[in-house]
Structure prediction request, 254 residues.
Amino acid sequence: MSSVRYMALGWLAVTIIAVTAVVCKAHTKKITDNGKGFAVVELFTSEGCSSCPPADAVVAKIQKESNDKPIYILAFHVDYWNRLGWKDVFSSADYSHRQNQYASWLNLSEVYTPQIIVNGKTEFVGSEEGTLRNAIKANLQKDAVAGITLSDIKVDGDKASLNYQTKGNISNTALLVAVVQKSAQTKVERGENAGHTLSHVQIVRSLQSLSLKNSSGTESIILPKGFAAKGSELVAFLQNTSTGAIIGATKAEF
Prediction:
């Protein structure tokens, strides 16, 4: 099994080839933040990595169990494994860049897949179910230091407008809004997962960062190509731009 490790240097990544056996290195229903703890689970994955399907299965299990709990799963498909013979249709260089930004924030010497980061502060191998459950449990027991709610989401062509309202200290904070496809399956024909049909949940189709000038306001986001309101949702979260820590989150359906 092949692996590529990326060394973080600010916003840039230096590629090193290595081998590893562990990792492939309209109106909306409003969900209101209640001030309790939450967990934003970011999975960095790829259809081109043979170590990723077990991690995809773990987050799918967590997603199925979460119901209305404040657990927000975001699956970012990176693009650096596309060179192995299979282009992940959900992959984006933007998601690879986000992973490398985390390497800078968390003082990591490399990035890899599958990698999970919880609330922008804790990272580990994405297939470690016990570690993930413990991280979620710990964060649900903490009080959120800030909050975000979305309302009045309207789709107009390739854009959507939304109202947001925050509470708490939002200095040095950006509002990130992810358009998420809830599920998909892909039959992989080449690469490390050739011959397998892969199942995915909570696939990030676009991620946009909005500057917060006020505690509330109206914003517009661009919808991804092929967007369908059915089977999609928005996940919004507040992230410290200096440390990467996520201090509040919510979601809303189209």
Remarks:
- Helices lie at 52-66, 93-105, 129-140.
- The domain at 2-25+28-253 is CATH 3.40.30.10 (Glutaredoxin).
- The first helix runs from residue 52 to 66.
